[in-house]
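In keeping with the milestone schedule agreed at the kick-off meeting, the structural modelling team has produced records for the first pair of proteins. Each record is given below as a sequence line and a structure-token line. The laboratory manager (R.T.) confirmed that both were archived under the project's standard naming scheme.
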Amino acid sequence: MRKQNIHRDEFLRCKRCGKERRFHLKSTPDIKNYHDALNNKCWTCSLWPYQKITCDDDEERSSLKASRGCSRSSTCQGCSTCYCEGCIKCRFEDCNCQECRDFMLYAKP
């Protein structure tokens, strides 16, 4: 049986070239990388954390983009199994974004 994943893969668009890059949200450091990139208004392909790439590198094929890591359906668009609106793994105390501040302020222990 596969390990259940509550955070599906997400994509972020480069501000320079407009290509979408995949972020795997399988561990806390991966989630933090995505969170930081999402909050960076000038994020570019060269800042992608998995390997060195540039805007000249090809974008992931659309057929591969359809699979986001949901354990229920390979082409899921976001269900209660894989989509998280906020949990202790994806909200950070040291972050000043509105989502993290609200979560830390109002979350029940």
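The second protein of the pair:
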Amino acid sequence: MVPVFLSFRQGTTGTVQTRDEVVAFALAGDVLSFLQGKGFDQVDGQPAPDLVAEAVAARVLPPDPRFKPTLTVTEVPPPAPNVPFQYKILVVGVAWTSGGVSRSVKMSGLLFRASP
């Protein structure tokens, strides 16, 4: 009899976890899309919290305060001297707590431009 009651109590755990992951990936995707739209020169590693706050503020729907986005910008040197491009790797992480467990997801993107 006890296992039956235990299953009723845990019945929505998977649904809540899946919903939270979808919300986190959507937030990461929104931030990443916003930053890619800003362009190569406007995205820098120094003011990352400001860029994330600007991206979150630009969303149509206000974000759930449980979800905390972060940004890492890494400028990658060209693989060879004759490669005429510059690259930046963007990694947007979103962390949250669900059911007392800390969770996080990461989504990455690439910015590039022709070398001056």
